[in-house]
Every structure is written in structure tokens, then in C-alpha cells.
Amino acid sequence: MTTEKLQEPRLEARAVSAGYSKSLIIRELSLRIAEGQITALVGPNACGKSTLLKSIARLLPLAGGSVLLDGADLHTMSTRDIARSLGILPQAPLAPESITVGDLVWRGRHPHRRFGQRRTEADEVVIADALAATGTAELIDRPVEELSGGQRQRVWIALALAQDTPTLLLDEPTTYLDIAHQIEVMDLLADLNERTGKTIVLVSHDLNQAALYASSIVAMRDGRIVRQGTPEEVLTEETVAEVFGMPCVVVPHPRSARPQIFPLGRHIGARPTGDSSTVLTVHPQETS
């Protein structure tokens, strides 16, 4: 159930049903995504997060319902018009064999050029900015297949940025990245959102990152939306238990006051707190 008050939505799913072969993953699901916000889709594996994102991006045919982009039915729009409006980073994308980083990111400019048109000066600026923003400028001449998993992920994000669309749909954009690069990417997305007003929808498995960076959280389970709202409204101990079947403690972040989730496994939850036998006291003279 949606508790937050959304403005006119940039994207809207109306009673959407979708899945694979004859198996439906989501059934008659409705969702409104406000313009100019970062929205995070969270939930356990196979709950329908990626299926919903693909449905919104028109990468997956609908079995029922409709998706609207700025009030227009997405499935009646031309592929070029969609590509100028939605930048999409799917999960585990594949690059053509032997393609270099520069040429791959150049492909992000496809919606903005005519057939056979060469790179313009404006294209070069956008590509350079996308590479610099993702810390991949020094990789421009490297074949994508030679890169590490983290480097590839940042290059794919650069391609999505080079597409230069008002809306980004990202399926687990921090996959394969170490924690420092995860934060760099999330900071980049937050900067884009604040500076340009980009609408960003991302699938995330990291509840704490989602809480710190998203304006709106959509918690899903078994192909349905359990709750949508601000991080404070959604990421409660009760909702986390309902969505993930996991007991936890939720506390405010010491700097942002956004909720942060600490899981309680059997061993963690059973460990006593304040047990003096487990506390190591370090005296000043011992810290030379």
C-alpha cells in the first residue's frame, strides 16, 4: 500500500502482469513513480523487482495492464522516442566481442544521431563526461572483455549516462563493485538527481544504501508491493520482517538520520549486550 503523497508520476504501471513463458511473476501490479526522485525497488530474490523494471522499460512484453510515460502509453511509442526518454542498464549486459570502452559508450549516443552519422563535438563532450563521472576515462581504448567485473559495471553505467535521458532505469547498478566504488556510483546518481532532476529507478539488494540515497522505497515480495513510501515509512522492523522474513534492529544513521538495518541472526540476536567479559578496555598509556 502506498503511503507517500506522490506528485504527477513520470512513470506509472497500471495493473501490470508480466513474467516468462507461461509463468507470471507479477500480477495486476500498480505503481506510480514521481518525477525527479530516486526510487529503489527492494525485496528478496525472485520477488519480481527485475521483472517490474523490465516491464517499465519495455524490455519484457506485458501479459496485461499498461505502462505510462508522462501520461502516454509506453507500448505505443517508437523505440527511438523511448530511447531518448529512458536510459536502461539491465542486469548482466553483454558487450559485442572485441569492442573498446570508447566505442561501447559511444553506442549510448545512438538515439541522438541519424543513421550513419559520425560523432559530433557534442557527442565527444557527453562521452568524455560520462567516462570521467564513472572513473573510466583511462580505459577508453581497452577492450571491454579484458576489464574486471567492477570496471565493466562502471563502463555500462557510463553508457547509460551517455544516453543523456531524463530518466534512468538501473538493475543493481553496484553489482561487482567494491564498497568504495559502490559509494562513488551512488554519489554520482545522487549528484545527477540533484543537479539535473533526473528520475532514477534502481533495483537494489542493499537496504542501507537504498535508505541513504533513495527518496522513495518500494518493498516487494512474491510479485506484489508490500509497501511504498519514504525510507522512514518503509524500512521499519515490522516491514523488513514481513518482506525478508528476517528479524532486525533499525536505528537512525548518525549523520543523516536515515534508517539503517542491522540483521539479527540466531547467533547475533542471542549474544548478550553489555557483557563486561567481552569488552576490551584500552588505557591511554597502551596506545603508543
Give structural notes.
With 288 residues, the protein is an alpha/beta fold. The chain has a single domain, classed as Rossmann fold, CATH 3.40.50. 31% of the residues lie in helices and 25% in strands. The protein has ten helices and twelve strands. Strands 6-7-8-3-9-10 form a six-stranded mixed beta sheet, sandwiched between helices. A four-stranded antiparallel beta sheet has the order 2-1-4-5, with helices on one face. A two-stranded antiparallel sheet has the order 11-12. The radius of gyration is 21 Å and the shape is globular. It starts with 8 loop residues before the first strand and ends in an 18-residue tail after the last helix. 37% of the residues are buried. The N terminus and C terminus are likely disordered.
Keywords:
288 residues; alpha/beta; Rossmann fold; six-stranded mixed β-sheet; four-stranded antiparallel β-sheet; 12 strands; 25% strand; globular; disordered N terminus
Question: What Rg is obtained from the alpha carbons, in whole angstroms?
Answer: 21 Å
CATH class reads Alpha Beta
- Look up the CATH topology: Rossmann fold
Please give the alpha-carbon distance between the first and last residues: 56 Å
Tell me the overall shape. globular
Sheet having the most strands: 6 strands, mixed
Number of strands: 12
Strand order of the largest sheet: 6-7-8-3-9-10
Number of helices: 10
Which stretches are low in confidence, meaning pLDDT under 50 for 5 or more residues running?
A: 1-6, 275-288
At CATH's second level, what is the architecture? 3-Layer(aba) Sandwich
Proportion of residues in helical segments: 25-40%
CATH homologous superfamily designation = P-loop containing nucleotide triphosphate hydrolases
Mean of residue pLDDT? 88
Number of domains: 1
* Helix and strand pattern: EEEHEEHEHHHEHEHEEHHEEH
